[in-house]
């Protein structure tokens, strides 16, 4: 038996940079597609708001439920690195289908099915590789994942600004094709530089044979067929969400029973914090549903200062405010974590999440009040302020989801538990789409932005309830958490 190689700090950072690069280009493709998709469904496919929201909810759920299987395949069958690469190829194929297939609901569902399966293979394994690179350095994990979260948002920001512009001037097909080209660049770079990961001894490739890889690819195509059936049928999607939630919790119970006694307390903490963090994605889903429709119909795209127009945003480009704020706030938080950590007063993950939900309440309070008073032409600066609060909340809640798994879950279960956390996020997104449909087409009889006031008010109150309930739980179990 060969001794395990202990990588140097430089080798770790080089390996991290390879994963970061392909993740950056993957986010370029994914968020560029997402920035175009809602407007494409409304303007090109002429779908109702209700159908758009539910299709986005079902596809979002699949994109985050599929990582349960993707994480397991990476852990047990072909290894995280190969699973991540197959997933990237699946995502690229989905964008190509959106660009080249006829524009119809049927072909849209096929394309989204490829994207869902590709995301399922890519996401948990990319995060798990980062976790393996820095395994054993728990103090560094929060900082590394915060930096990781920040850097991949560079690709998101550029893409969300660029793709709606391409959509406006050259059509949605060109935008989707650019998403595919961006991811292709990331895949090629990964293939060229993947040797930097070899020295890290992340997995034993002798156990991963060609037969396993072929089986995974074949299974991926079968999964595409299943996803397409789900997307085409709202009843199947609803029952699938219920089944998925049930299976996640049964899976967690199974892991708990099979775990060692000394691992169980940490697992309970991991489960609780994962559920708490997943609530954020109910609110996050509004960015591609109600908030995009809100900006499309009721928010001015002209950013003005002292009566002078500075620049103009299309409705899809407003989604870029989220990654922009992530880029601005992430280094601040990473620096703050390190400073507070040096004086041994770093808040717990639970405390960070509770602060996040308090800030999230401010975002929806701002949108609630502006929708009451703004008439038909809401100032775009309102969206800037709201997304700033929402992005800070993301970093303090959902953004720490993978750090929770890395800190409290046994290493041998990292991929599958990461996948189950993604599944919770997907379920929350589906719930978020249902909530977005509180604004139905029939409610357009109300005047302008006022139709969104009730929705934003309820979301504000919901976030505040989570915040206050969490404080009570923290007081009751502060030592435990």
From TrEMBL:
The keyword Transferase does not apply. InterPro entries: Dipep/tripep_permease, MFS_trans_sf, MFS_Transporters, POT_fam. SUPFAM superfamilies: MFS general substrate transporter. The lineage of its organism: Bacteria, Pseudomonadati, Pseudomonadota, Alphaproteobacteria, Acetobacterales. It is a multi-pass membrane protein. Its main location: membrane. It is found in: Cell membrane. The chain crosses the membrane at residues 20-42, 54-74, 83-101, 107-126, 147-167, 173-192, 213-231, 237-255, 267-284, 320-337, 349-368, 380-406, 413-435, 455-473. It comes from the Bacteria. Keywords: Cell membrane, Membrane, Peptide transport, Protein transport, Transmembrane, Transmembrane helix, Transport. This is Amino acid transporter.
